[in-house]
Batch of 2 targets.
Target 1
Amino acid sequence: MSLLEVNNLKVNFKTYGGTVDAVRGVSFNVNHGETVAIVGESGSGKSVTVQAIMGLIAHPAGNVQGGSIRFKGKELLKLNKKQMREIKGKQMSMIFQDSMTSLNPTMQVGKQISEGLIYHQNVSKREAKVRAIEMLKEVGIPNADKRYEQYPHEFSGGMRQRVMIAIALACNPDLLIADEPTTALDVTIQAQVLELLQDIQEKKDTSIILITHDLGVVAEGADKVIVMYGGMMVEKCSVHELFSNPNHPYTWGLLESIPNVYHEKKERLKPIEGSPPDLFSPPKGCPFAPRCKYAMNICMEEVPDLYDIAEGHSSRCFLNDELAPKIAEFSDAEELV
Amino acid sequence: MYIIRRVLTMLLTVWVIATLTFILMKLIPGDPFSTEEGALPEEALENLYAKYGLDDPLPIQYLTYMKNLLTFDLGISMEGSGRSVNDIIASGLGASATLGLLTLLIALVFGVTLGIIAALYHNSIFDYTAMVIATVGISVPNFILAPLLMKFLAVDLQVFPVANWGTWQHAVLPSIALASGPLAIIARFVRSSMLDVINQDYMKTADAKGLPTYRILFLHGIRNAILPVVSFIGPLFVSLITGTLVIERIFSVPGIGRYFVDSIFNRDYTVIMGTTIFYSVILVVVLFLIDVSYRFIDPRITLTSKGGS
């Protein structure tokens, strides 16, 4: 049994402009000790997917419309608020993108770590403080005793993200969800934070869902990859498959857009032309079809099913149909990374 | 360092207010003893002026007053009762301060609660009800509310006494009448800042920690939402404890509010000066305390002697 099984998850938001189908049927599993990366551009539904898993979709605007989320065999969508609190922060926790706004500016950072401990593990305030200081040390914050009493504005961006990680890991969760944990940091700090996450995963055998749009991060740290586009999962495979045998044209576009520093002659960056679909009125067919170089007539009319390409590799693209014309193998992925 | 600078500024402020009041007061035509021509014998008037030092040149009068002020001697009322101004303020302050504190408490407790409920149930019937109450509270003047409260709660239902002062029951109706306006303003402040706070990322973080709703709201929400209210409480507090003329009149509360107005009509120089200085001292002290309390509510604020940090 997998730690987390997400099946055909659907989430929509009611807005003044109409209903937005932010997530349209996403399914994946996370096994123990595994890192699953979710990649895709802004608005592709990656954040909404994980917020639905954490039960953070804000009612009444947002609604989980269907599907199932099973965590350790338990159906999360059927739990009430109180039962969900037993899981949130304790067995499953989350790191947010912007550590500046995600930490309470008027509360000592130490207390932001220890409050979860006090609530979930029933420990005394003093005990919680000792453990919180240990957590601060563990995520590599020097002078932890003194830092415990400081406020978020007294920390640098990287240090704040370490604090967020300490908060998330305080209760030793089985699953850690990191929603673009390094996007707001500069490159050298990004590497440190990712390394920290990997160290912790190795030490504690924590499963991680990592949202990112940096394929470099995916290559280094993930086991499985889910590529999302327009609220749909367009490709799902192992990291190795993603780089050696990418199947979906959108994935090709993502891989091609990585700048290559090893090329001798200067090259222009290769963007994916066009812009993401308007989710107020999503296209009838494949969401990527209007931007797809290889789009066929049927792509505009129907949403393709997931085609199984190989063991654990599926792709939502009609090009995999027996009747589709074969196109030249996409092959420069491996030299990119 | 900050404290020393601040105290010096406060003393300077009070001195400027005292001096300006002195000058303006002397610019009003007439004096405490001026009456119709010939109502008092010339000689009696001269004696009175001499007794209260009003026959000295103005600069001398000013210096004498300032010298006495340094020893906290506010002089004697010129109205004829012979009471010292210190005594007048002391006798009225108890009632005014009690009324003021009670009003502040009512306004804060109900204002903050109403604001939070309105924010939590945004755009629901609770929100609309709370905001209607708030709008009514702001628009209906307290001298209209006061007689209505008297009519319904005191005369018809006989729950509280109509007027006068003595037991805690006497304080209830005037406090409610006084609190309605500030309560409404506080409710609106809290609602808008709470709405802002609820959508902050750190509220989502708190939710993701699996904390119970009350903890998220009280520990993470309200403290961040309360700052705009604190800046409003300072001046409100001062105006309340230093007496509220109209309401004290209506409910016959023996506070100091009436001395503010009566003293000006009577040209009761020492009482005008005394009450004004007393008011300004309390104002600067409370504003100082408010500034210090910011530091505790929001750690991002540091107190410095100069602008910026």
Target 2
Amino acid sequence: MNNDRFYVNISGIKGDKRIPSRVLEEMIQNAVEQGHRAIEVNAYGQHGIGGRLWRSGNEKIKIRIQGHSGQRTGSLGFPNTEIEIMGPASDDIGWLNAGAEIIVHGNASNGAMNGGAQGKVYIGGNIGARGMTMTKHNPRFDPPELWVLGAAGDYFGEFMAGGIAVVCGFNTSYNESVLGYRPLVGMVGGKVFCRGDATGFSQSDAKIVPITDVDWDWLCTNLMNFLQKIEKKELFDRLSKRSEWTLIRAKTPQEKLIGKGILAMHSFRQDVWDRELGKGGLIGDLMEVERGTIPLITKGEWRRMVPVWEHAKYKAPCQANCPTGIPVQERWHLIRKGLADEATSMGLKYTPFPATVCGYLCPSPCMASCTKNLQYITPVNVRLLGRAGEKAELPVSAEKSGKRVAVIGAGPGGISAAWHLTLKGHDAVLFDESKQIGGKISSVIPDSRIPKETLQNELERVKKIIPDIRLEHKITPKSFQKIKKEFDYVVVAAGARKPRMLPIPGVEFAVSANDFLEKAKQNPAKLKDELQKIKESLVKSKEDQTKSNEVQSAPFKKVVIIGAGNVGCDVATEAHRIGAETITLIDVQKPAAFGKEKEDAQAVGATFHWPCFTKEITSQGVILDDGEVIEADTVVISIGDVPDTDFLGKDISTRNGFVSVNEFNQTSDPTIFAIGDIVGPGLLTHAIGSGKRTAEAIDSIISGREPEMLDARSEIDKSRISLEYFNPMVKSYNTLEECGSECASCGRCRDCSICVHVCPEGAIERFESEDGAFEYKADPEKCIGCGFCKGACPCGIWNIVTNSPL
Amino acid sequence: MSSNRTIKPSSLSLSDLPWQICWKKDRCTLCGQCTAVCPVQAISLSVFRKRNIADSMNPSNLLKLANSSSKTDSSLQTDTLSHNERPLSSFETYYGIRQKTTIEEACIGCAMCSMVCPNDAIEPRRSHGIDRYRFHINQDGEPRKRGGRRNSTDSLLDRIKFIRISMLTDPALDAGRHEFELRTLLGRILSPKENINRLRNNGWIPPVREIYPLIIGGMSFGALSPTMWEGLQMGVAYLNEELGMPVRMSTGEGGCPPRLLRSRFMKYVILQIASGYFGWDEIIHAIPYMKEDPCAIEIKYGQGAKPGDGGLLMWHKVNKLIAAIRGVPQGVSLPSPPTHQTQYSIEESVAKMIISMSMAWGFRVPVYPKISASSTSLAVLNNLTRNDYASALAIDGEDGGTGAAYSVSMDHMGHPIASCIRDNYLNLVKLGKQNEIPIFAGGGIGKNGNLAANAAALIMLGASGVQIGKYVMQAAAGCIGTETDRCNVCNTGICPKGITSQDPRLYRRLDPEDVAQRIVDLFVSFDIELKKIVAPLGRSTSLPIGMSDALGIDDYQVAQRLNIKYVV
């Protein structure tokens, strides 16, 4: 019974009834169990015939199938099994084959060897779709093999993961690929030999490789074997022409990564895009197109932002806020360079009164506006610098122009005008009705505010510069016209000497602040006498005998000052000096007094009251609107002064009693200029500044130029200054050197070279010219436009601006 | 910072800003790259003051003091210090990166500083909670404008699921293995009866294009930089000619470079005409020389970013190149009014514009309007259905748009795209014309990165294809904008990636080749993803337009509104 030459026959039909697949399977398994090793099955389309025959162990089993083999013949086949189908096969022949050898003497339909892992399937005809799909190769066994005499149907070898397929392409009915439509999609392993056209397979999954001699030997040997199995040995010669065969294998994962076999974009641009559009591509006709990209950090013209060294482009706040326009920062720079003499003599180019005004009398808008105030750091002390100017070297005047300018009024404004005109080479003549020059500085400002000697020294210096000073020269309308004729230009600096008084009853018993101050300064005893007389007359006028005793017993004890500005404070200080006991300043609004004057007044015990509206001045004192009485022996009115412009005549236009001028202090008569309080109330430094600007304007006109603002630069943005470099705890400065080094030098390069060291690219260099002038420059080829120079600059010199468009 | 300073209502502190620069002193090398690259100069080098206090309890401090200060008495004792003296306090300075707090220099969060920092020492961080900055970006009474981005991560499209997974019910398909017909039709398709009738009588058959359903929406030459624009066109050409994907791109309203007009690539281009009519005389001049007809003409009536509002290209952006392409003199501002001036009704618009544009190319080119999604969209569609010359309707939803727009328009104007597309499609179904006039959807597709899913959802709701803009900018050019108000300065010309700038110092950062390659990547990967969605649905023979039985959402109201399944 063990002889395989004797086939036991199992029929798939019993009578006229087809045996179900389940029963036929049972019958075949039973036969194997009983020891049959050769079984012929007359099949009627039963499913899975010949598979799973493990019961014979290692012994070989032959199954011969006659009739219609059903789907999945030999599925889950074992290595011991040999199946021979004498006709065509249905779907999924050798499905999930684990070792069976299956011979089909005809065509096989779809899914031949689908999922096969071992074993061999020989097809003596064509196969349908999806043959050799999902096959694998388990390294423990030989790979599965599918041999097809004819051609494969569509989607051959999908997801093939191992095994060898040989498609002989014999007598194929199509002109197209012997592997059908879209073969080898998703192939990851194994190889396919095919004879004939194999185009159309998935190029991304598989590739054609040369057939080696080893491959060819294997193919020839096994081809002969295959042909024997399907009983077509005679075809060997026809099929064994090496040149007709192609070997395709799966790409390795690495091969799949490289080169997807499509055109690189760079080549596309060059060979397709630019060829169609022309050189430069899309917009090559409209502009020059450079290829390639630029980095995020760029240099040279590709920088978005560029640094600029804006040295002295702006005024420092001190200079911008100085009515005289003194470049304080430049003077501190000279101090830092050890050029103290140059620093002090520079002052004289701006003001004849550096010590008197900058050093003592000026409320110092420069310091009030100092950048350092932003962090509550004490501004450097300009007064020290001012006072040093007392001994400054005399400036040298320019060559004589021969032009003559009369300056009427030898106050600070007039002196300033005459001073600058003289320095510019013009003959300036100073006229004043008083006995001395200096105007209010000499006559009105209390000695407590400034040492007499300092003032005297500076006035002497003025006299040295201005040779022709005509004092006690009262100007009348007539003499003014004469002067006008005699001189090329006239500068009117007559000041405001007429006190403003209040239109109230009893005003005749009050004294004006100027009167008070002038007399207190020159002859206090005489002043007191006069005040006593006024008091007495007041009492008499009211026939107030009861008070007379009091008046006599308390002369000049209580002083009330109406108008609590800085002049009022000066009155208070002077009143105290000459013996007043209670001093009261009243005002209709919050007192405008500030600075040294206010402090001095408070120091002598003066009190401030507001708002107080004066109704009347009586023997009792000052009566307010609300009936309150502020007792007073003496009442001083300090609500400002108005100028006397009568002598100018009607040709010079005025407004509200002040002379109208343009920005160059020119009046409606182009040869006549007006400065100082006659133009409007202001500080000493305002008068000095207008004196200077007027002198410059006249100088311009004399030399045939349009007058212009000599320094129209704007004030620097304070946020550009790095105050962090300064110690915020320094509260006072003792020497010029200390001030120099602590000055923030806003907008004025202090030549510290911090930028050179901070620049990350080493792009900044300092250049010095022969005259000692220096400049910092950023080399565009090194600079990246980071703005570090700007961020680190102590003085706000560096700026970072948008680069000019390309 | 100044201690002695006053504040104004718009004086902001660092914590008021939407983005804070986190700078690590210990890692910084002070190389200057961050301040050099910052597009808005939000950061700068600054000098910092540091105060050191040595306490007088420690004798060694006194010794140090004695050695260093002017007080040279080495036997200095605590007792010898006056109570008002502070000699133990000293100052030093250091340099660091400081963030500015001015409105115009506020950090935009672009993180270019992080990109260039060699030491990872700097990065912007989003502030927690609501910033105070937003209340002040209307200085001088000028409301905020920004690049097109709604700054909302909400996306209804993201929530739609594809619930119909065919495994054994329909042909089971494999996205990687099977072939899919993913092309769509742009053009008027006549009913079969009418088509046969016209064929028989030699009548006019409307032009129809077979195109890829993912269209690059209108972004003008001018709004985009030359490198970006060329990169997009190059990528599109590559997709067509090398990969056989019929991808199309709309020019936006800014004309079209003369060379492109005269090239075979013209067939990949949808020319847009809008209310400013920029560049159209150049297009007309090119007609006799055109090798190919354009794909289609898009008449822009509205866009998602600023529905009902026009645009303005500022004069300083109108450089020589832009001027040449738009056919205008250099350095003048270019307004696109909200409406086309001579059209006062839908009927008139349809009659005038569509027929005029059709005539330009001998009725061989499809012409369709693009409108912003609106509750009135149906009225437009109904008009189009009655006109054979109308090829399609493009609708841009509230999330759409890339151009400059007022924030108020961007944030609060407009209609969501999903229900608008659905209403329009169902209306066509009611008319029996759903296969005759295609609807294209735009606005927020892929806003959170889910490009294929959003596109597929809209297609299944009834769109024949979708238009994308922002996604292209992000995926193809590395736009760093986010829906959390990052960057968003496209309108100001300072785009740090060079996408929306006309400054060569910025746009030369972008290589057209790289953009083109990313366009290819984007479309190829979209194609795979779209297949991954349609394959399980069992659809391979045509795009599943209106296949809403495949859609579900976990919100009952939305499901009802969109007429899709409610799934939980």
